[in-house]
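Q: What does the assembled structure look like for these inputs?
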Amino acid sequence: MIMEPLLLDRLLQIGDLFQKDMSRAFEGTPLSTARVHLLWALQDAGPSTQQTLARLCGVSPRNITGLVDALEASGHVRRTPHPTDRRAVLVELTETSTAYMAQMRRDHADLDAELLGAVSPEDREAVRRGVAAIADRLSALAAAEGGPS
Amino acid sequence: MIMEPLLLDRLLQIGDLFQKDMSRAFEGTPLSTARVHLLWALQDAGPSTQQTLARLCGVSPRNITGLVDALEASGHVRRTPHPTDRRAVLVELTETSTAYMAQMRRDHADLDAELLGAVSPEDREAVRRGVAAIADRLSALAAAEGGPS
DNA sequence: TATTGTTATACTCTATAACTATA
DNA sequence: TATAGTTATAGAGTATAACAATA
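A:
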């Protein structure tokens, strides 16, 4: 009797594959998943203080200092003075990485289409609904156990 | 006009939530996702050499040395001499962590049921099929680009 | 007094390369 | 000569705590 993998196992596998894929895509570049996560947050939020980025990325402010240092050195972001608060800096994407992130967004959409294409047409809406429901449930479980951070 | 999140975004979100959930579950213990990954491999494969574990976990042999060192110190695994090859060691679960992993397997199944419960009954089979198809497609893409490692 | 970012320190995960003992 | 595991070294990501400048 063959054990079919659980739905959970498949979801974990998908998570692993995404991670490996990203690591592979960034090797030989100054980027990494953590750094791209920060760039992605900047693309969504626009110029932000490091405190804000720490919240958006879910890491410590100290960690943001290191990530921004690296991204500044590689020319992906720029630190500019905050217009009204002289303690703070605003971090923003450079022109180069604005274009880079726009391309990444397109690739992202392409991959979405590719994955959806792997699902038979009559299952697609159910998969959309189901995966969204699972994400919401998991999110609720995390909030319940971990406290509403 | 509201932008609905892509299926891909939902899957990425699920991956993140799993990671945060595990990190939270292991904080304050000597365990971590990398260490539990190794324990999980041992539960599936039985006593194994470190070379084998390196392949199963997808990390370098050197890395396994460190993980096994930590897990041995915390009493989760044991190094025993290989019966026929005096260069090699066999790593095996201790009694304590055999029980611990059995419990984790039950929790795993419970979570699977919980997540499936979040999906409406008429969507469940489609979601199972669809997620499996996505995992397979992603796996094929990784193999095509990354070379058949 | 509280907040922003940095310096100081430390731990985990990861890798490659050189070395030892065995095959 | 090739393989199993370790020592040596290095770098990224993460954290907390103490400190400076500013609010």
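Chain B has one domain: 21-144.
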